[in-house]
Design a protein that fits this description.
Blueprint: H1 2-12, H2 26-44, H3 53-60, H4 64-92, H5 94-113, H6 118-146, H7 150-179, H8 186-189, H9 191-205, H10 220-243, H11 247-269, H12 277-280, H13 283-313, H14 318-324, H15 329-343, H16 348-366, H17 375-403, H18 409-446, H19 454-459, H20 461-468, H21 473-512
Helix pairs in contact: 2-6, 2-7, 2-9, 4-5, 4-6, 4-10, 4-18, 5-6, 5-9, 6-7, 6-18, 7-14, 7-15, 7-17, 10-11, 10-18, 13-17, 13-18, 13-21, 15-16, 15-17, 16-17, 16-21, 18-21, 20-21
């Protein structure tokens, strides 16, 4: 009865966005804590296999192609199904979808831990992606139902964003610690207690969203078009980042774009579309989606360089590098609540713009890193850009979630997260290509004549290290020194590229989103009603 009354109250209090709503109590905050567990684990599973792959390879003996699919299958399925699951949650109820996702994720985790072949593990990783896709947009969308007061919802979204970004960084650390004491299946079994806790507590703590508010049947064709478009584009971009230009990845990107165009055309014609294109066209929603995409472009694109710098240039072990890579989280812990507090006093657009500009300064800082730079120097630069980005992403998530109608919150969250996945793939491809081009050019000039396996040395820093291990000491030192200098130069140029994009994102946020995120209680000018019957100067 209490859950039903609260859900009805949520629908009745969505009048002027940003107006004060009923305050959440201990039960709602406890529910949020429970919902953060699956979010942490789902985001961790993107990176948790980085250390486990050598052990899996020794046990299951996958081919090189199978090994890549073991790593990538989870992320591909997760990204491809986000929009579908967001729409499904709006139709059947988000609490129901969270429970279903937890059951699938928990069962798939057990199956993955005891997989007896590479083929089985690949299939189970796809099921994990299915469960993760059900969980991620639902956890963000449920914040809309749990927290009706704009200020409390801002704090909840800040926590959600921080947990999501921390989970990606925490995956390798947890994996490394577990593998020191247990077999590789343990990296999957850690999911089980959290999923059991979720299944036990969510029915009592989380209200069900009203079902039956979405008209029309579930559109299977739209679901297939969405899945095909996202999978093809993200797969093609990632393969480009990994191997450079090849016909098949390019064809996948083109095919994905065509399927995406068909999907959009179909949404325009449907009476009850899977994605509300009118909402996506509003500044209060489309702007934050673009801001999140750009933020993840820089985050993922530079993460690859940062990890390699710690391991291959500074010579740290994988686990040590993973532990040090958590230090920039201090910037997140400081800037995320600071940004939320500033947004209560000034236009969120300006705070978002400031976050992006702070991130640009962090990337410019990293552009000054050299092979002999002290460790603290690179970690400080990482903390600056990470803090700025998470502050901007938190406010973007909050602004977009507040702009979406309550009955479409799941679809809105899924669109946000799909944009993040696409932005990450683009960052890895574009910034990675910039760094690789600089590395190859520098190595072409720096390599001594007659260096064995010169092509491998010119391709990657890892290839240079493998070749150097078989060379005489003096030649090996020359090759490794040149490779580390070239890689660090490439990191610097890629960081400048990221800084330029972040500066553009800051200007875009401050200009394009101005007036959409005034502090609660302020009234926007009449000109800022953004084309609908209610003001879009939201504080939520």
């Amino acid at each position: 009865m209490e859950n039903t009354q609260r859900t009805q109250r949520a629908q009745n209090t969505e009048h002027a966005e940003g107006a004060p709503g009923p305050l959440a109590g201990r039960k709602e905050w406890t529910a949020l804590g429970v919902l953060m567990l699956p979010l942490l684990l789902v985001s961790m599973d993107v990176s948790v296999l980085y250390f486990a792959i050598p052990y899996i390879s020794q046990d299951l003996e996958p081919s090189a192609t199978q090994q890549l699919w073991i790593l990538d299958m989870y992320g591909f399925v997760l990204a491809g199904l986000l929009i579908v699951m967001g729409d499904l949650g709006d139709r059947i109820g988000r609490r129901t979808l969270v429970l279903a996702g937890a059951a699938v994720f928990g069962a798939a985790s057990v199956a993955a831990a005891y997989a007896h072949s590479a083929e089985v593990l690949i299939g189970v990783r796809a099921l994990l992606g299915l469960g993760g896709a059900a969980l991620m947009p639902s956890t963000l969308a449920l914040i809309r139902n749990l927290f009706l007061d704009a200020r409390q919802r801002a704090k909840a979204v800040t926590l959600w964003t921080g947990v999501m970004t921390t989970g990606i960084s925490l995956g390798p650390v947890v994996s490394g610690l577990l593998l020191e004491h247990f077999w590789w299946g343990s990296v999957f079994l850690i999911n089980l207690p959290a999923m059991v806790l979720l299944l036990l507590l969510v029915p009592f703590l989380v209200p069900e969203t009203a079902t039956g508010t979405r008209g029309g049947r579930f559109d299977l064709l739209s679901a297939l078009l969405s899945l095909g478009a996202l999978l093809a584009v993200i797969y093609g971009i990632k393969e480009w980042a990994r191997h450079g230009y090849e016909p098949l990845p390019a064809l996948c990107v083109v095919a994905g774009l065509v399927l995406g165009a068909v999907f959009v055309h179909r949404q325009r014609r449907l009476a009850h579309p899977m994605i509300d294109l009118g909402l996506l066209g509003r500044r209060a929603f489309g702007g934050p989606v673009l801001a999140n995409l750009l933020a993840m472009f820089a985050t993922v694109g530079m993460a690859v360089f940062f990890t390699q710098y710690l391991q291959s240039v500074l010579g740290q072990s994988p686990l040590t590098a993973a532990l040090w890579s958590l230090v920039p989280a201090a910037g997140v812990a400081l800037m995320a609540p600071t940004g939320a507090a500033l947004a209560q006093r000034t236009d969120r657009a300006y705070v978002m713009g400031g976050g992006f500009l702070l991130a640009a300064c962090g990337f410019l800082w990293l552009a000054q890193v050299r092979t002999d730079s002290p460790l603290w120097f690179s970690l400080a630069g990482g903390a600056v850009y990470a803090g700025g980005l998470v502050a901007a992403m938190t406010l973007a998530n909050e602004l977009a979630l507040g702009a979406a109608p309550p009955e479409r919150a799941g679809s809105a969250a899924a669109v946000l997260e799909s944009g993040q996945e696409l932005g990450g793939a683009l960052g890895m491809a574009i910034l990675g290509s910039i760094g690789a081009a600089v590395y190859s050019r520098d190595m072409a000039h720096a390599l001594p004549a007659g260096t064995p396996h010169a092509d491998a040395v010119r391709e990657t820093l890892g290839g240079a290290a493998a070749v150097a291990a078989e060379l005489p000491a003096a030649t090996a030192d020359t090759v490794l020194s040149a490779a580390r200098e070239a890689f660090t130069h490439g990191l610097g140029i890629a960081a400048i590229g990221a800084a330029v994009v972040m500066a553009g994102a800051g200007v875009l946020s401050a200009g394009f989103l101005r007036g959409l995120g005034r502090p609660a209680g302020t009234v926007p000018p009449a000109s800022e009603h953004d084309g609908d019957s209610r003001p879009t100067a939201v504080a939520s």
